[in-house]
Each structure stands twice: as C-alpha cells, then as structure tokens.
C-alpha cells in the first residue's frame, strides 16, 4: 500500500514538474481511483470472507463432513471444479481464491499429515486453474467484459465463442487433475 501511494505521489510530482496543470493531475488521480475501487472492494470483501471462514471453522467442518468419502485422489479434481463453478458464478477469480484457498489448502494439509507435499501443491494449482477457468468463461467477469469491449464485439458473442475452447481445456484439466490425484 505504501509503495502504491508513493508511486502515485511521485507520478503527480513528475507530472507537475513537466508542466501538467494541477486540475489535470487531480482529474487523472480521481479517474484512477474510480477504476481501481471495484478491485479494492473485492479484496476488502475477500479479507472479510477469510476472517469469517476462520471464525466459523469452515475448513474443519468440511473436513469432518467429508472425511468418510473424500480422498486425496479426487481432491485436486474437485477443487478445480468447485473453484471453477464459484469463479464462473461470481465473475471473479481473486474473490474465489479468498474463499477456496483457506478451505482447500487446509484439507490438503490434513491429507498430507501437515507436510508440504504433492497434494498441497496439486490443490494450490487446481484452485488457481479453476479460478482462472471460471473467471474467463463467465459473462460477469471483468476480463470477458474488457476483452469484448476492447475488440468492439458483442459481449455475449465473445463469451459464446470462447466457451468451446475453454471447455476443451477445462475437460483436459479435469482429467489431468484426476491423474495427478491418482498418482499421489
């Protein structure tokens, strides 16, 4: 945060030294703040979700509710699917990471005997991949909206044209996460 603020102040100083009027610097700063506010709000909610999840012992509950049937063999594939579904539904990968990382990594550590091993790495990769997969398929996602806007194409047409390619890669990913799970 301090580095960002210092960079913003230094950019303003450099702009002023170059002769840019103060009102233009202020307008530029306000436009930048408006542009970044959605990300700040998402991160604030993400931190609140992390705290809420920890306070409710969500990971411990999921461990106790699934210990009879959940194995490390299917955990990477399930983490990819669940993360992808949440990211698709919400349109954000980062908010999804805030939900899934604390829960799924604790599950992975539970299976690995609290050791940093293959199952933990596989879960982190599955959550990261699922978040990106769901986010890029989602019509609610800022990346989809910005890509269609930047290409001057209809937003829904853009989503429809990228879905088949993403679905193929998603299917391959599911198979690979199953393969990784069975090799653990």
User: How many domain regions?
Assistant: 2
- C-alpha Rg, in Å? 21 Å
Relative helix content:
over 70%
Number of strands: 0
Estimate the global geometry from the Cα principal axes.
globular
Order of helical and strand elements: HHHHHHHH
Protein structure class: mainly alpha
Low-confidence stretches: none
Number of helices: 8
Mean pLDDT rating? 87
Task: Name the beta content range.
Answer: under 5%
| Spatial separation of the terminal alpha carbons | 39 Å
* Major sheet size, sense and barrel closure: none
Commentary on this structure:
The protein is mainly alpha-helical and 184 residues long. It has 2 domains: 1-41; 57-183. It is 83% helix and 0% strand. It is globular. The protein starts with a helix and ends with a helix. The relative contact order is 0.11.
Question: In brief, what are we looking at here?
Answer:
With 184 residues, the chain is mainly alpha-helical. The protein has 8 helices and no strands. It has 2 domains: 1-41; 57-183.
List the helices and strands and how they pair.
Layout: H1 2-17, H2 22-55, H3 58-66, H4 75-90, H5 93-111, H6 118-137, H7 142-150, H8 155-183
Helix pairs in contact: 2-5, 3-5, 4-5, 4-6, 4-8, 5-6, 6-8, 7-8
State the main characteristics.
184 residues, mainly alpha, 2 domains, 8 helices
């Amino acid at each position: 945060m301090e580095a960002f603020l210092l960079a913003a102040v230094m950019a303003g100083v450099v702009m002023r030294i170059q002769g840019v009027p103060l009102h233009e610097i202020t307008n530029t700063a306000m436009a930048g703040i408006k542009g970044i506010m959605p990300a700040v709000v998402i991160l604030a909610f993400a931190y609140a979700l992390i705290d809420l999840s920890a306070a409710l012992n969500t990971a411990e509950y999921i461990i106790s509710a699934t210990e009879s049937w959940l194995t490390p063999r299917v955990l990477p594939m399930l983490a990819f699917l669940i993360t992808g579904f949440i990211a698709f539904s919400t349109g954000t990968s980062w908010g999804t990471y805030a939900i899934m990382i604390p829960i799924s990594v604790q599950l992975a550590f539970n299976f690995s005997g609290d050791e940093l091993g293959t199952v933990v790495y596989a879960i982190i990769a599955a959550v990261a991949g699922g978040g990106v997969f769901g986010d890029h398929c989602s019509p609610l996602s800022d990346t989809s909206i910005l890509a269609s806007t930047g290409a001057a194409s209809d937003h829904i047409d853009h989503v429809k044209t990228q879905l088949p390619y993403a679905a193929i890669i998603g299917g391959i990913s599911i198979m690979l996460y199953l393969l990784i799970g069975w090799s653990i």
